[in-house]
Amino acid sequence: MYQVSNELDEARQTSRTEGTDEDLSRELDDVKGDAREASVECQSLRTQYANALSLAARMALTPHHQPEERGPKFPDSPDFSELDRTHLRRWIAQHMMIIRHKPTTFPDKQSKMRYAFHRLSRFALRQILQHVQEHGEIGLTDLSALIQLLEAAFGDPDRVATAE
Fold it and tell me: What was the pLDDT predicted at 82?
């Protein structure tokens, strides 16, 4: 585009010589061809620019860390709602395995507690529901505090005797 503009300025500054209609027609066709080429090149540059912007936006949204080590896929931990005290220990162990297996999925305390909350139902859910705040945060210090509440309500008070 810059070259066409320079040629146009140069043509305006030089004296005009008369040419035949055929010469003018050829020159006009050349100018039109140059304009088409410039238009195609401009469109190509626009597409490249849009692709670069899209790629930059995706890279900005991608966390800058090593990809999570993928091992065998674990199913979600089962829901816990039962009053059978032996099931709580199993649920806690399975729940902790899932959280440790996917550290990027559960990067902070709230995400870990929300996952545990999501896996509770019936009686156990009611035990933790009172700690859920209006804005969706769970009003406990961390996952250990949530587990301690569940153990106090549903845990086995005498694990040694139960094991025997």
Answer: 63
The pTM for the full model equals: 0.49
Q: Contact, 147 vs 92, CB < 8 A?
A: yes
Q: Where are the domains of the chain?
A: 2-61, 85-163
Residues with Cβ within 8 Å of 86's Cβ and at least 6 positions away in sequence, in order, are 156, 162
Structure-derived torsion over alpha carbons of residues 103, 105, 108, 113, reported in degrees to the nearest 10:
-110
The torsion angle over the Cα atoms of residues 97, 100, 102 and 103, rounded to 10 degrees, is: 160
Query: Strand, helix or coil at 115?
Result: helix
What residues form DSSP beta bridges with 80? 120
Q: What is the predicted pLDDT for the residue at 18?
A: 65
| Averaged pLDDT, groups of 10, the chain, 164 residues long | 65 65 86 89 87 80 55 57 69 84 85 84 81 85 86 72 62
Strand partners, 132: 138
- Give the contacts of 122 (CB within 8 A, at least 6 positions apart): 81
Report the amino acid identity of residue 141: T
Dmax over CA atoms of the chain, in Å, equals 114
